[in-house]
Structure formats: structure tokens, C-alpha cells
Amino acid sequence: MTQLLLPAVPYDATAQRPSWDDLPSALRSALEARLGAPVVGASVSGCGFTPGFAALLTTVDGTQHFVKAAHLSIEVAQWYAQEAKVTAALPPGIPTAALRWSGELADHVVLCFDAVAGARTPSLPWSLPELNECLDALTAAARALAEPVPQILALQLDPFSNVLDHALSQWRSGQAGPDPQRDALIALEARFDELTRESTTFVHGDLRLDNLLIDSAGTAWICDWNFLGHGPPWFDLLTVLISAEAGGLDVDTLFAEHPLAVNLPPDALDAGLAAILGYYRYSGARPEIDTSPAVRGHQRYYADLTGRWLARRQGWA
């Protein structure tokens, strides 16, 4: 297990978002009309890596609404529109905030969700009880998605081969950069491709610490479903556990004993770690983004965590 390794920027302070007052007056007026009452309070979310508006709004009648908005001219608007489609199609049994409504207001894509009481991003290093809550939420989501409902099938979501070809092939393409273990990493990445290419189940696809919430009762919720697609259920498990490596928890055992990892080949975990490491090595070396100043640091941090976990398992460290 690794020693404590924390990110340079806490995950509840990674976003660079507009405030309520920064929004165009036409959008604020349209939102208040749609919400049915004037907004008297706005708590902007500090987590995430997009410049879209995301805030808990309180109206004068005391009702709370979690609202996301992005101008139609930026890519985030497409992500928010996809998130609305996916969230509306999710089957019962998934611990996620309900989508109240979505649409276009004043040239913005807008989503309004139920407010999660006391919602906060899990803290690093993870406490084992909070991590187990999140892993239980993941299990519930996987079970609910195991038999996809017609609404999900109608979305015609991407096959996992798209993810493999565009994101999880960086060692074989040479984009992940140099590494003393490059030959072994190429072989492991190819093995992950072999194990997962034909996956027909559905996964969140972007399940990180900042896409999980803990409410005031200590219950875990999963958010930000815009990357739902086909994939192996244990992929989401692996991407969650990468951040648990930061605090020295026994991530090997947590993975091996989780229901989603039952009956996996012995080399599946290492294959997955190698593929994810290649993605983060490549992404973390790309140019910085002005509207998301913390994202490259996050990717380099996750590369460090993933690389340490894999090196320890392989005996490279």
C-alpha cells in the first residue's frame, strides 16, 4: 500500500464556475420563471472540471434545486444535454438525484435536479465507511443496469470499443510517453482490450471521486451520467478505487472482494490499471486548459496513483 498522497488542489475546489450573479440577466430571469419563485441563495459547486454553471439554488419559498447550465456555444452544453437524456432514462434502483426538468433557456442548456441534503464530495484520504458506502452505491447501480430498460437501449450508446480505441490504447499508440516498463505495459493494455472489447453491459464510464456525493446521513450518491456507455462493470469499480490508493487502504483486497470483481481472470486488475495509466499519462501531458486549470494536475495525480498501484502489484517499485 502507498503512503499518504494528496492532490495539489482538493477535489471540492477544482472547478472554475460562474456565480449566480455572473449569469446573463436573461438566463436568471428565465430560471426564476421556470423555478416558480425568485432565487434568494446560490451555493456554487466547487468540484468538477467544467466551466458550466452548477449550483444549489434556494428560492424564496425555501425550495432547493440543483441547477446546471451551459451556453449553447460551448462543448459543455452538449455534455449537459447528454446527461439530461441519460439521467431521465436511468432505471429505478440507482442512487442518483432525480432530474426534475431540462431544456433550453436563454440560449443555455439547463438541467434541474432534486437537491441532495448536505451533499459533499468525499474527503481524501478516504475513510473506509465512506468508501464502502460508495462501493455499495456502485453495486446497486450495476445491478439496476444489468437488465437495461428500453429507454437506455433507445439511446444507442457507444460500444466500449470506442473507449478502447480513443482513450485506452495510449501505450500501444506511443502517446503515453516513455516508461522503463513500456513493453510490459503494452502487453497489459492489449490484454485489457482482449478482456473488455465485447462488453455489452452498461457502466457510468467516468466514475471518480468528484462524481460521487455523500449526503447528510452518510449515504452515497452517483452523479454526472453523461458518459454512460457499454463496458465491463468492474471498470467503474477500478476507477473509484484508484483514489483510495492515495490513503494507503488495501485496494487489492477491496477490489478482489467486491461483487463486481467475482470470477475475473487473475490479470484483469493489472490489465485495467495499465490501460488507465496510459490514458492519464497521455492526458496529463497535454496543454493546460484556461477554463479548467486543475484538470491536468488531476490527471497527473491519478497517473501517479495508478502507476504506484500497478508498480507495487508487479514488483516494479
From TrEMBL:
<dbReference type="InterPro" id="IPR011009">
    <property type="entry name" value="Kinase-like_dom_sf"/>
</dbReference>
<protein>
    <recommendedName>
        <fullName>Aminoglycoside phosphotransferase domain-containing protein</fullName>
    </recommendedName>
</protein>
<dbReference type="InterPro" id="IPR002575">
    <property type="entry name" value="Aminoglycoside_PTrfase"/>
</dbReference>
<dbReference type="Pfam" id="PF01636">
    <property type="entry name" value="APH"/>
</dbReference>
<feature type="domain" description="Aminoglycoside phosphotransferase">
    <location>
        <begin position="66"/>
        <end position="242"/>
    </location>
</feature>
